[in-house]
């Protein structure tokens, strides 16, 4: 099972995690998606042109800012779910949802729950690709990696929904269409007699497109409702985080049992039910129709060019460029997801029910990792937290060698116990490693385009995730690891784990670029004050 799959960027790509791999948090990286993108995995008040960033980055920026708070607070926040885990869950229930109609609050909660509950299909998808389609470990990794493609262009969804109302609405219509697209895709996977990886890839991409678009839209709604009230923002983000976590834990609890009880195809049909529910609640969103007279193609084109120019100018700055390089490389290191899934099911004989329990334990461990960061590590230097967390996770990742060589049994440790413990430790440490990445991304975003730039950084993160999966799949094929031959699996694991800390070489450059930018900002502020 992969070690980074459980925590990555934003949910973005979180839906692409498969099998027991979805339970792991990354040998040295931690990571996903439901970026968010995740994950997943945005910003305070946004302009009309930055609406895309508002959508995609809402949760990520709120989390990032909340994680940086030391008592005096910060102006922006990111993916508020995790931040809420440490502090938001303590918000008074009185910090209440005034300003958010009850029906709309129900819709928001349901959509976030659905985002987490879509993980129900992960284990079923792995078994379907392995048993029904007969894919090799490398091919399985590649097919599941295609689910990350829609998460790589999240800023586009926000700009489109902000600029081109659908049936007169910017939010509810897109949310409904996203739900319909997701339900149709999973329904087709459950009902059609698919026998080629290409058709499965297409349906997985469409399902992920629906999830990513819904993620952007619902984030936008949350930002709009909580923009003018800090208390409401904290309370609403806490509620969203609880809903998403509840959905994820519920999915982990049921996924393995359902695969054994009803089979992958029926699990896909059950998964299709969740986007349908989200589509139904979209009509509870309170939104005024946008008059067609408000649409000006000339203005939209000018707005897009202006935003693109500002974004390009920001990315060229060393204070943005090097953190972006670091974020990409951190997520692009390969990992043997498909190979480990085949090894655990074919060689070790682990059942689907047990792998579902592994995912459940890892989900709880990730919550513990978030709590640890918020309660103990959030005031520590970010680069130090990431450095030591990554090194620790790399060392823990080496424990996979004990499993694939059978050394754990020589030491008297049962395979089941070893997999459970190893997954829990890596999930917790991986989540701790993920927090500084969000904070780094939140810190480098300048005024005026902060939301859009954060969304772009999350897209870069997801692109790195796709690259890591692709490299892992190719390395699996090159080393000849198949469903029957695991001779070179220890070498594959060793190479992947050894490459994990490689992006750390960029940390000093990232730190210097941020410090340099902070110094220039201070000098500019002093000059303005003197003037």
Task: Give a brief outline of the structure.
By secondary structure, this protein is an all-alpha fold.
Report on this model:
The chain has 531 residues and is mostly helical. It has a single domain (14-522), classed as Growth Hormone, Chain: A, CATH 1.20.1250.20. It has 21 helices and 1 strand. Helix 12 (318-332) runs antiparallel to helix 18 (415-444) and helix 14 crosses helix 18 (415-444). The N and C termini lie far apart (60 Å).
Could you list some keywords that capture this structure?
531 residues, single chain, mainly alpha, Growth Hormone, Chain: A, globular, disordered N terminus
Blueprint (SSEs and pairs):
Elements: H1 51-68, E1 78-79, H2 81-86, H3 102-117, H4 121-132, H5 137-145, H6 154-163, H7 172-191, H8 197-226, H9 230-262, H10 264-281, H11 297-315, H12 318-332, H13 337-347, H14 352-377, H15 382-397, H16 399-405, H17 407-410, H18 415-444, H19 450-478, H20 489-499, H21 507-530
Helix pairs in contact: 1-6, 1-8, 1-18, 1-19, 3-8, 3-9, 3-10, 4-9, 4-10, 5-13, 5-19, 6-8, 7-8, 7-10, 8-9, 9-10, 9-14, 12-18, 12-19, 12-21, 14-18, 15-18, 16-20
In CATH terms, what is the fold-level topology?
A: Growth Hormone, Chain: A
| Sheet with the most strands, sense and barrel status | none
Using the 3D structure, state the CATH architecture: Up-down Bundle
Structural class: mainly alpha
Low-confidence stretches: 1-95
**What's the CATH class, please?**
Mainly Alpha
Superfamily at the CATH H level? Answer: MFS general substrate transporter like domains
Number of strands: 1
- Total domains: 1
Distance between the termini: 60 Å
**Average predicted local confidence, pLDDT:** 77
Shape assignment = globular
Strand content: under 5%
Rg, rounded, reads 22 Å
Share of helix, binned: 55-70%
Task: Count every helix, treating DSSP H or I runs of 4 or more residues as helices.
Answer: 21
């Amino acid at each position: 099972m992969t070690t980074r799959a459980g925590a990555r960027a934003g949910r973005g790509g979180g839906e692409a995690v498969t099998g027991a791999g979805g339970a792991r948090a990354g040998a040295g990286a931690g990571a996903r998606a439901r970026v968010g993108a995740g994950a997943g995995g945005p910003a305070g008040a946004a302009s009309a042109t930055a609406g895309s960033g508002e959508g995609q980055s809402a949760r990520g920026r709120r989390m990032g800012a909340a994680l940086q708070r030391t008592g005096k607070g910060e102006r922006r926040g990111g993916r508020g779910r995790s931040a809420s885990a440490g502090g938001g869950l303590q918000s008074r229930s009185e910090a209440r949802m005034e300003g958010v109609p009850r029906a709309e609050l129900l819709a928001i909660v349901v959509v976030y729950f659905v985002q987490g509950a879509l993980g129900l299909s992960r284990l079923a998808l792995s078994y379907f690709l392995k048993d029904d389609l007969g894919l090799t470990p490398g091919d399985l990794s590649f097919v599941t990696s295609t689910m990350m493609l829609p998460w790589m262009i999240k800023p586009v969804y926000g700009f489109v929904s902000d600029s081109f109302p659908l049936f007169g609405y910017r939010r509810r219509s897109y949310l409904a269409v996203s739900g319909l697209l997701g339900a149709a895709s999973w329904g087709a996977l459950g009902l059609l007699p698919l026998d080629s990886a290409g058709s499965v890839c297409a349906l997985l991409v469409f399902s992920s497109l629906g999830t990513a678009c819904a993620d952007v839209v619902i984030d936008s709604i949350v930002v709009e409702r909580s923009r003018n009230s800090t208390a409401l923002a904290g309370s609403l983000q806490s509620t969203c985080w609880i809903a998403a976590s509840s959905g994820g834990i519920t999915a982990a609890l049921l996924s393995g049992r359902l695969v054994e009880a009803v089979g992958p195809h029926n699990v896909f049909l059950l998964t299709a039910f969740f986007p349908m529910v989200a589509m139904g609640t979209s009509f509870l969103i309170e939104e005024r129709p946008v008059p067609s007279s408000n649409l000006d193609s000339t203005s939209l084109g000018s707005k897009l060019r202006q935003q693109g120019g500002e974004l390009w100018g920001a990315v060229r700055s060393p204070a943005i460029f090097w953190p972006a390089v670091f974020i990409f490389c951190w997520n692009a290191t390969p990992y043997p997801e498909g190979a480990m899934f085949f090894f655990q099911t074919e060689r070790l004989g682990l059942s689907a029910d047990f792998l579902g329990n592994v995912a459940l334990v890892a989900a709880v461990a990730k919550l513990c990792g978030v709590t640890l960061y918020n309660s103990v590590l959030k005031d520590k230097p970010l680069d130090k937290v990431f450095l030591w967390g990554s090194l620790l996770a790399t060392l823990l990742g080496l424990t996979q060698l004990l499993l694939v060589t059978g050394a754990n049994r020589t030491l008297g440790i049962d395979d089941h116990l070893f997999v459970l413990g190893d997954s829990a430790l890596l999930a917790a440490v991986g989540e701790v490693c993920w927090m500084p990445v969000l904070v780094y991304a939140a810190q480098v975003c300048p005024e005026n385009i902060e939301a859009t730039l954060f969304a772009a950084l999350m897209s870069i993160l997801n692109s790195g995730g796709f690259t890591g999966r692709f490299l892992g799949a190719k390395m699996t094929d090159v080393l000849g690891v198949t469903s029957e031959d695991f001779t070179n699996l220890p070498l594959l694991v060793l190479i992947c784990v050894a490459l994990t800390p490689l992006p750390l070489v960029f940390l000093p450059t990232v730190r210097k670029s941020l410090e340099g930018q902070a110094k220039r900002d201070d000098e500019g502020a002093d000059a303005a004050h003197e003037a």
